Amino acid sequence: GLWRTLWALGVVLVVQQLDGSVITPRLISQTTSLHPAVVILCVVLGGAAAGISGILLSVPLVLCLRAVWRTLVLRMAA
Predict the structure, then answer these.
(1) Which stretch of DSSP H or E encloses residue 68?
(2) How many of the other CB atoms lie within 10 Å of CB of 1?
(3) What is the number of alpha carbons within 13 Å of residue 24 lying toward its C-beta?
C-alpha cells in the first residue's frame, strides 16, 4: 500500500544519504590518506566547476597535485 511504499522510499533515501555523505568519503579517505572533509570538498567543488567529470576527476587531481607538491618539497630540501 501507500504507507509501505513511503516507508521504503524513506529507507532508501536515508541509506543513500549515509552512503554519499559518510561511508564513501571515509572509504576514499582511508585509501588516499585524505581527510573525509577534503574528499567531500573536492567532490563538491569539482561538481560545481565541471559537472559530472569534475566529480569523477576531483579527488585524483588533488592526489596528483599532492604528489607533485611533495616531490617539489623533497627536491628543495635536498
Answers:
(1) helix 36-77
(2) 6
(3) 11
**What pTM value is reported for the model?**
0.69
Please give the DSSP secondary-structure letter assigned to residue 5.
H
User: Quick one: cell of 62?
Assistant: 588533488
pLDDT digits (tens, 9 = 90+) for 3-50: 999 999 999 999 999 888 888 888 888 888 888 889 889 999 999 999
DSSP annotation string for 18-63? HIIIIIHHHHHHHHHT--HHHHHHHHHHHHHHHHHHHHHHHHHHHH
- CA 59, distance to chain mean position in Å, is 7
